[in-house]
Amino acid sequence: MSNRPYTPGDEARIMTIQRYIAETERNHPGATGEFSTLLRNLALAAKIVSREVRRAGLVDILGRASVTNVHGEDVRKLDVFANRMIINAMESGGQLCVMASEENESIIPIPEEFPCGHYAMLFDPLDGSSNIDVNVTIGTIFSIYRRVSTECRGTDADVVQPGDKQIAAGYIMYGSSTLMVFTTGNGVQGFTLDPTIGSFLLSHPDMRIPERGRYYSTNEGNRQLWDEGFRRYIDYLQTPDPEGSRPYGARYVGSMIADVHRTLLYGGIFAYPSDRRNPDGKLRLMYEANPMAFIVEQAGGRASDGTRRLMEITPKDVHQRVPVVMGSVNDVQEAEAFIAGTR
Asked: Taking the model in full, what pTM does it have?
């Protein structure tokens, strides 16, 4: 399919997310429709959250909710709303056996009154929520696994699996437009919500990340806390070279979704390394690092914790944290060399 953007009157080329899912399912003769229904329910939840994000300032949903989450972070009212809406939209469909949310301390079993299915879903309801009150891009990250336990309602084992066991992952970005990007292990597709018809339309088919970029994205406020290797790497990116390939431009939003999405489109590197204050890293392996790593790899990029592939890490806890370095293959490999001290 062409990368030419959709324009009104080009109806023959319209590919809605529902049509894409249906056509993909037809290419798998043994498909039952369960997984396809799960993705469609998730797209519906995204529309509901998107609507509330756009109305947030008008319905008293901005600001803190006077509580903290399991990580000790301030919870915004919109965090609470998004978490509740995603749970409500997904628990009754009959495709899931269990869920886990960054905002919930324990796993979220499917209530007894609803049928249970063969999949487990993890999600960060609102990544970048510290930016809500200043109207900066935020989003939802999700990750889907097959059930591995024999329990109909699911167990911890179903949501604490290595990233390479994911069968789908994606993010919904609430910005100037609402964009749903996901992979089922066969490339990365991006769909933009057209509010005039209420449908997600394929706008970014077969997304590919350049092998090298010109931008880096990291929180330089932590520079004095970084290990020497990563600090030298950022110095290297900022130093002009005779060929003109450096310095790199600095781009940092503070919402992982926004920073990784830009990196996916233009190349370069996104990093949140370990430091003296967060020796195990700050981002969550299951809710943020693994799903984004799956997307980046499916787009031809590379994702690691600075020394090893993120999706090969065996998780010990659903709320485990990890350092993150992901983006263009050449840029990530270069960063890993600096971190290892071989450059």
From this structure: 0.90
